[in-house]
Specification:
Helices cover 28% and strands 27% of the residues. The chain has 285 residues and is an alpha+beta fold. It has one domain: Nucleoside Triphosphate Pyrophosphohydrolase. Helix 2 crosses helix 3 and helix 5 packs across helix 6. The two termini are 31 Å apart. The relative contact order is 0.21.
């Protein structure tokens, strides 16, 4: 009898980008070695959609979400919340104001809410309501969507968003789920993975390559993402002689539809991964 397919938990990942010295840079964190998913890996900030992200109050405290269904809204709320929790960047503004919160206001919000949100002591709606803020969801550009293969026991349905990092928000890892962080050119992250200097799991690797192909600046990347429809990737794994092949839709924009699976991620191959890892989320918690 076929084993039942595990449900896929909704999750969000955010690619914060900026124009740096070497060109386009993306913010990435190194997962704590005791985390049960992607321990020690270089990933984009992100995690699972929490029940509090679906608080009905949140919808009234967002911009750019008109007409979105509950899941579409929850993906965006989770992406902004995770960016705040994991790296201290907050895509939110005082209610009705044109500009995002400045560095001084952000410091207050970090002191009051960053750790409390991560612990679940407060929900995102509580912070927005108390501080009279609204989430700037229109700054998130949908970039990709990956769902863990059906044969794996722990599964995620993950939306990837790309967003320009606010210039006066200093991104830094939280020191708990993530133990290090870096602004890095996508090509350099791939080079370090190939050299065995970093562990980079499969969806992260492909999205780094996609970033590099898309453009050399934040404006180019965001424009290309806005113009391209997101094609959901639900990888299909095929056993072949000498190994296994992962199939994904060519329309998803990763340059190919067939990728070999061998060994552990990041070790000497551009596209190696462990099937034991729940493919589809770079940083779900």
């Amino acid at each position: 009898m076929d084993k039942p397919v595990a449900p896929a938990r909704l999750a969000s990942t955010i690619l914060l980008v900026r124009d740096g010295g070497p060109g386009l840079e993306v913010f990435m964190v190194v997962r704590h070695h005791e985390i049960d998913f992607a321990s020690g890996a270089l990933v984009f900030p992100g995690g699972s959609v929490d029940a509090a992200d679906r608080d009905p109050r949140v919808r009234t405290m967002t911009s750019g979400c008109e007409g979105f269904d509950d899941d579409d809204l929850a993906f965006r709320v989770a992406a902004i919340r995770e960016a705040f929790e994991e790296c201290g960047v907050l895509l939110a503004r005082p209610r009705g104001a044109p500009a995002l919160v400045d560095a001084g206001r952000l410091k207050h919000l970090e002191d009051m809410y960053r750790a409390a949100l991560e612990r679940g002591d407060v929900g995102i709606a509580d912070m927005l309501e108390r501080e009279d803020l609204e989430l700037a969801c229109e700054l998130l550009v949908p970039y990709a969507r990956w769902i863990t293969p059906v044969q794996l026991p722990k599964r995620f349905d993950t939306m990837f968003f790309v967003a320009r990092a606010p210039e006066d928000h200093v991104a830094i890892h939280d020191g708990r789920e993530s133990v290090d962080s870096v602004w890095i050119h996508p090509d350099e992250a791939c080079r370090q993975a190939d050299a065995g200097e970093r562990t980079v799991i499969f969806p992260t690797r492909l999205n780094l390559e996609k970033l590099s192909r898309t453009g050399a600046s934040v404006e180019a990347v965001c424009a290309a993402a806005a113009a391209a429809p997101v094609v959901t990737v639900l990888p299909r794994i095929e056993k072949i002689e000498g190994g296994r092949i992962m199939h994904i839709p060519i329309e998803a924009g990763y340059g190919d539809s067939r990728f070999p699976i061998e060994g552990s991620p990041g070790a000497g191959s551009a596209r190696r991964m462990q099937l034991a890892q729940p493919l589809g989320d770079t940083n779900a918690g």
